[in-house]
Amino acid sequence: MGKQFRIAPSILSANFATLGLEVTNAIASGADIVHFDVMDNHFVPNLTIGPLVCEALRPVTDAIIDVHLMVKPVDRIIPDFAKAGANIITFHPEGSDHIDRTLALIKDNGCKAGLVFNPATPLDYMDYVMDKIDMILLMSVNPGFGGQKFIPEALKKLRLARAKIDAYTAETGREIWLEIDGGVNVANIADIARAGADTFVAGSALFGAGKDSDPHRYDSIIGALRAELGKV
Predict the structure, then answer these.
(1) Do β-strands 88-91 and 112-117 pair in parallel, antiparallel, or remain unpaired?
(2) CA angle in degrees (0–180, nearest 5) for 97-98-102
(3) Which residue, of 102, 104, 109, 168, has the greatest Cβ tally within 10 A?
């Protein structure tokens, strides 16, 4: 049995007029996780969606909802997303004055917790809180907008994060997911997996495919991503 890979469509690139249907179709086509990008026009230069959208989506799918908070300060909004049905909540260390406390707050609200690293943010923050982390998310673009190109330097950082996680898992037996977000597509997903990622956010590569009205519009692109992952 090979490594388990998870595909997480980012709804940032979906058609918001038919969001429930978009999510249903993507999961039916073989995606695993709903990736939810929350931007506050303060920490990142864009404004997206809040807990109300998460709450509306929750009854539509049984899939894991993975909420990526690009907001500052971050603590105030965490209980709202937990209540709205999030399963995993990740945040940027720069968005919190007390990283340890924010991770504990996520856990106290019944969710899995994770840290997100921008392309230029060092991984050191994770070293002291591994016992509270369920996921590490590495940004392979600078956050704020969908459709950007993958930054190749992220592969080096992925290898480093994978080594840290593997050492921790060997010591404790506890698994931590390693997610990548930004510019992931059919052409590069195998290289990204070889560098150590096990969870892949795909936005424009997925939701840009086919016609809105076709319920099977995501079958071929998710099939192609899986085929590439099968080569790893």
Answers:
(1) parallel
(2) 110
(3) 102
Annotated catalytic residue within 32, 40, 75, 181: 181
- Asked if 129 and 90 count as a contact pair (C-beta separation under 8 A), the reply is no
Based on the residue annotation, tell me whether 75 is a catalytic residue of this protein: no
- Domain regions of the chain by residue span: 6-229
97 as an active site residue: the answer is no
pTM exceeding 0.90? yes
CATH 3.20.20.70, domain 6-229, yes or no: yes
Per residue in 144-196, pLDDT (tens digit) is 777 789 999 999 999 999 999 999 999 999 999 999 999 999 999 999 999 99
**Token pair 């019944």 is at which residue?**
110
Residues 42-55, mean pLDDT to the nearest whole number: 95
| Residue 148 CB partners (closer than 8 Å, separation 6+) | 141, 142, 182, 183
